[in-house]
Amino acid sequence: MANGNLELIQLTKRYGETVAVDAIDLKVPAGTYCCFLGPSGCGKSSTMRMIAGHEVVSSGDIVLGAQNVTDLPPAKRGTAMMFQSYALFPHLSVLDNVAFSLKMKGVEKTERYRKAGAVMELVDLTKYASRMPAQLSGGQQQRVALARALVTDPGILLLDEPLSALDPFLRLRVRTELKRLQRELGISFLHVTHGQDEAMALADLVVIMKDGRIEQAGTPQEVFHRPRTEFVARFMGGHNVVTLDGRPLTIRADRVRLGGGEAGADRSLSGEIRGVEYQGATVTVVLAVPDAGEITAVIPEERFVASPAALGETRAIHWSRADEYAFA
Fold it and tell me: Residue range 284-295: average pLDDT?
């Protein structure tokens, strides 16, 4: 197993005149759960496919451990990729699907079944060993695809939007399983997603991409509390981006309160209520504030009930100036 740090050096992918990935640099320490996050077309999947060896690198380098793997075929890299479509063989049992890559490598039947059985136990598939893929639920099929990727003992597991086909309840369960597996195996998981909540829940390192470039890379706490750009603040959600005192800054929606604040210590504004959404424990209120645009406030339910707001009303809002964050 090729374990170690992953480093991308000026990694670039061009499709004709289109630059999909634009000379990115990134270091992913060994044993990291790393999520590539961004809108469609930002370059995250192209980056993943280049790391896997399924896309040819236009320029730059991919270094895994002490080895430059840029020009190596996928099977020689020490990586494994789990595809979004699962791509299971419908005519093979679960056991044979999981063991298939070992069969292609010439591993003897008893040994490949032993290794496949060990991985299947890890992802709770042992009781389904003789079933065919059509006899499995979507979540079970996904676990087969995951086991098939893990059976080769990769140093890095690559996951391309692995949860997108699952319903919300199952997505939460599988998310928990992925985090547990990554911790138990001690290898790096590189996970492409467009879901902010998914990245925040799973990642040690979040890499946010836009137009083929990395906008920010950091811990979930860093990218949420200290967004480097307006794009990051808006994409991560939960932030208002406003220009006040001649400079753009961000204020978290859960820091905005209805009513007037303390003079000097707080920023006080007022605006027309344009939206009120009950969310259970919180209520989201959207206000149109002159010269500042729309500002969203996420109010604890009990506070909102004590001082409710109705559409069309003009209401004061405030937040602590200490909670304002100016972009770097």
Answer: 93
- Opening angle at CA 119, ends 117 and 123, nearest 5: 110
CA angle 28, 33, 37 (to 5 degrees): 85
Contact 149, 168 (CB under 8 A): no
Answer with the one of 166, 200, 225 that is the final residue of a domain: 225
Pairing relationship of beta strands 257-258 and 314-320 according to DSSP bridges? antiparallel
Categorize the per-residue pLDDT at 4 as very low, low, confident or very high, splitting at 50, 70 and 90. Answer: confident
**Is the confidence at residue 272, as pLDDT, over 90?**
yes
User: Is the pLDDT confidence value at 293 over 50?
Assistant: yes
Alpha carbon 73 to its chain's center: 26
Candidates 232, 217, 210, 185; CA nearest to 31 is 185
Output the pLDDT for position 3: 59
CATH number of domain containing 96: 3.40.50.300
Angle at CA of residue 13, ends 8 and 15, nearest 5°: 175
The 3-class SS string of 278-318 reads ECCCEEEEEEEECCCEEEEEEEEHHHHHHCCCCCCCEEEEE
- Which tokens sit at 278? 């009950």
Q: Coil, helix or strand for 33? A: strand
107 in any annotated domain:
yes
For 129, the domain range is 6-225
What's the one-letter identity of residue 181? L
> Are 292 and 250 contacting, i.e. CB atoms less than 8 angstroms apart?
no
